[in-house]
Amino acid sequence: MSPTRAIAALALSVAALSSLAACSTEDEMKAVDPAASGEPTSSAPDEGPGEAPDPVPDGEVGTNGLVTVLDSGSGPELCLGAVAESYPPQCGGPALEGFDFGDVGAETAGDVTWGQYAVTGTYDGTTFTVTDAIPAALYDTMETPAAGGLEPACDDATTTDADKATPEDMDATLAAASALPTYATAWLSNGTISVAVTGDAEAAEATLRETWGGLLCVTTVEKTDADLNAINTELQAALGDRLLTSGSSRPDSLDAQVVYDDGSIQDWADATYGDGLVTVTSALVPAS
User: Fold this and answer.
1) Spatial distance between the Cα atoms of 177 and 185, rounded to a whole number of angstroms
2) Phi and psi at residue 118, to the nearest 5°
3) Any idea what DSSP says for residue 250?
4) Of 164, 216, 169, 167, nearest in space to 190 by CA
5) What is the C-alpha separation between 284 and 287, in angstroms, rounded?
6) 271, 248, 287: which is closest to 10 by C-alpha?
7) For residues 171 and 193, is the Cβ–Cβ distance under 8 A?
8) Is 32 exposed, middle or buried (0-12, 13-18, 19+ CB in 10 A)?
9) How far apart are CA 33 and CA 274, in angstroms?
10) Within 10 Å of residue 12's Cβ, how many Cβ atoms?
């Protein structure tokens, strides 16, 4: 793999069950100030993150759009997380009670039956009892635009030497960025090299200008890719089966999707790692 591809890939390097893409602004990529928030940004080295809440909805909830329901022979399951793109597909999730695949929308291969449904019902933390299930063929939804990639770290990038902006110069600059002692991550977008460091951004930019005269943005963050990987591992251990997907879609932050959150898991993540470092989303939402 060339340095260009390798460094660009690091922008999304945190291991995740599925990738989550989102655009970032310069403000979104600024480091959280723990002194200002009064909250820690990670657990102590010799301590775990503490017990995470395990909320259970007290009313009807529903899936946030269409999800896969799959029965591999042991009863239907609500696949809220990743679905393996095999034939038949493979996935798992909370057991469903009161569910019927119906006359439209389901496929069967061997002993496996599956389909796409928007499901409403009650959830006790283990089993989802269905009160309504709409197959994809009857589900009316607006098309969601495809998410884009990372934006440049700043909106005022400048070119200092157009003759020093060749692909070879780019490769050399990305290699120089990864060698910086304060290097966090780097990415390419709209012809701009963006580099995030945990230390002096001006000093880092001066170093990178030795090899790159094209569009360049250097920004300061608090967490490196290695830091985010460590936090991601903690999240997986603390949340267990409640965690569906987790990963990094922008510098200095993590996204985590759980089966259900009433806000208490987000509060726990903010208190444990610092306000805003981990964004928690819930696969099940209150029924409208």
Assistant:
1) 8
2) -100, 120
3) S
4) 216
5) 9
6) 248
7) no
8) buried
9) 8
10) 19
Q: 279, 260, 270: which is closest to 63 by C-alpha?
A: 260
The number of CA neighbours under 13 Å toward the Cβ of 233 is 7
Task: Please give the DSSP secondary-structure letter assigned to residue 163.
Answer: G
Answer whether 133's CB lies under 8 Å from 71's CB.
no
Kindly report the average pLDDT of the chain as a whole number. 83
Cβ pair 187, 11 in contact under 8 A: yes
Q: What is the C-alpha separation between 245 and 235, in angstroms, rounded?
A: 10
User: 206 near 21, Cβ under 8 Å?
Assistant: no
Secondary structure of the chain: what % helix, strand, coil (to 5)?
25, 30, 50
**Count of residues for the chain?**
288
Integer Cα distance of 216 and 220 in angstroms: 14
The predicted model scores a pTM of: 0.71
* 230: nearest Cα among 264, 261, 273, 174: 273
Model confidence over 22-73: pLDDT tens digits?
333 333 333 333 333 334 444 444 466 778 999 999 999 999 999 999 999 9
Residues contacting 162, CB < 8 A, separation 6+: 213, 214
Residue type, 279: T
Q: Are 249 and 264 within 8 A, CB to CB?
A: no
DSSP 32: P
- The label of the residue with tokens 């990094």 reads 248
pLDDT tens column, 197-234 = 999 999 999 999 999 999 999 999 998 888 999 999 99
